[in-house]
Description:
Elements: E1 3-11, E2 15-17, H1 27-37, E3 41-45, H2 46-50, E4 60-64, E5 77-80, H3 83-89, E6 95-100, H4 102-108, E7 114-120, E8 128-129, E9 138-146, E10 156-163
Parallel strand pairs: 1-6, 1-7, 3-4, 3-6, 4-5
Antiparallel strand pairs: 2-8, 7-10, 9-10
Catalytic activity: (6S)-5,6,7,8-tetrahydrofolate + NADP(+) = 7,8-dihydrofolate + NADPH + H(+)
Keywords: NADP, One-carbon metabolism, Oxidoreductase
Protein name: Dihydrofolate reductase
Amino acid sequence: xxxxxxxxxxxxxxAIGKDNDLLWHLPDDFKRFKxxxxxxxxxxxxxxxxxxxxxxxxxxxxIITRDKSYxxxxxxxxxxxxxxDAFAIVANENLSYIIGGGEIYTLALPFCDILEITRVHxxxxxxxxxxxxxPSEWKLDREEYHAKxxxxxxxxxxxxxxxxxx
Length: 166
């Protein structure tokens, strides 16, 4: 299996969403997400998929749901009923992305090789959270700070973590 990268924007209190929506608007983070995931398979839960107005262009969506009758009418989408089924589909890909939500992040974290985390330097009220990272399992490889400006209401930092081999 190729590399599995988990990509997420996460507040200081690990909040990632509320009412199936994002908690902030960070245009530069959207651009980064698009540039990293375009051309790759992206794995997500059903609620994350349903939070998009339509499928993201130039990416194959693998949607995980327990609902065996769930269907979508888009050609670049595959429905599966487990994370294992999703991993089977991406087994021959060089790189695939886990894009959320909270439950999928928790299930997928042990299988990921790289974490691309945008740490949003604020706390938010939320109903979806990112799992806590075990510092003995992950090494911060690089980070890039982005101060708030006229397009970004909060400071944030791009952080890339590499899984430590045991």
